[in-house]
Specification:
Protein name: Rho termination factor N-terminal domain-containing protein
Number of domains: 2
Distance between the termini: 41 Å
Structural class: mainly alpha
Largest sheet: none
Number of helices: 5
Strand content: under 5%
Number of strands: 0
Shape: elongated
Order of helices and strands: HHHHH
Keywords: Coiled coil
Radius of gyration: 22 Å
């Protein structure tokens, strides 16, 4: 057997992109001795280094959520509603704002999963 490391030989339970920075660092320290300085790297740097060693080509069209701008707008709206809720005095107004905020939060979660 050669000393070449493959993705299958690592025996991963998750994909590299789904792993946390801590898990990636541990993987590098335990199974990939070619990469040095892993403790000082963040997740993006670790992913690039691991994919370099394994020979995985990064796709040009990185998966981005097409609804990202819409989600951002909704979240800014939620922040402003929270400020309004803090200033509101009537219980009825606070309840209405709370329900609207919850509805918008559900919408952002749905949009982020829609990809």
């Amino acid at each position: 057997m050669s000393d070449e490391i493959t993705l299958q030989s690592l025996g991963l339970k998750k994909t590299l992109d789904k792993m946390t920075a801590k898990e990636l660092r541990q993987l590098v320290m335990d199974k990939i001795p070619q990469i040095t300085g892993a403790t000082g790297m963040d997740k993006d740097q670790l992913l690039v280094a691991i994919k370099d060693v394994l020979g995985i080509k990064e796709e040009e069209g990185v998966k981005t959520n097409p609804y990202k701008a819409q989600i951002h707008d909704i979240k800014t709206e939620i922040r402003s509603m929270r400020e309004q809720k803090a200033k509101a005095t009537a219980r009825k107004d606070k309840d209405i704002l709370r329900k609207r905020i919850n509805k918008l939060k559900k919408r952002t979660r749905r949009l982020s999963r829609a990809v």
